[in-house]
Automatic annotation (TrEMBL):
The keyword Nucleus does not apply. InterPro entries: CheY-like_superfamily, Sig_transdc_resp-reg_receiver, TCS_response_regulator. The keyword Phosphoprotein applies. Residues 7-131 form the Response regulatory domain. SMART domains: REC (SM00448). Pfam families: Response_reg. The modification 4-aspartylphosphate is found at D61. One of its GO terms (biological process) is phosphorelay signal transduction system. Keywords: Phosphoprotein. This is Response regulator. It comes from Putridiphycobacter roseus.
Length: 132
């Protein structure tokens, strides 16, 4: 793939899901770097503190212990607008509840709601849609 994301941030407490997603992203050569955070608070801290390796694509799980995906979104909207403007945030979930999809899509910072696990096909679609 010619164009790549600079950095993809995976926010998910499930280690096996992170492993699978990292392998597929690497296999497809979609980015230069993959950052994994297993809880939303660590991810938020990373986004607040990191100056150089700012992710341009974020995958956010909904159900996590401690701060969940919804709470993360409330804090995320407080980040500087210019930082958020360079990021594409996609919600990931195993939830089949249509209310979760609707709630995610009502959030201005969420670009899409996708089912886990990500597949090669879904990642290629994401790259086609969101690579700038």
């Amino acid at each position: 793939m010619k164009n790549k994301f600079n950095c993809i941030l995976l926010i998910d407490d499930e280690l096996s899901t992170n492993y699978i997603h990292k392998r597929i992203i690497s296999k497809l050569d979609l980015c230069l770097e993959i950052i994994i955070k297993t809880n939303a608070q660590d991810a938020l801290n990373y986004l607040l503190e990191e100056e150089n390796n700012i992710p341009d694509l974020i995958f956010l799980d909904i159900n996590m212990p401690g701060m969940d995906g919804w709470e993360f979104l409330e804090e995320y909207k407080l980040l500087a607008a210019e930082k958020r403007a360079t990021q594409t945030l996609l919600m990931l979930s195993t939830s089949i509840n249509p209310d979760d999809r609707e709630r995610a899509m009502r959030n201005d910072n969420v670009k899409d709601f996708m089912n886990k696990p990500l597949t090669e096909e879904s990642l290629l679609f994401i790259a086609e849609t969101y690579l700038k």
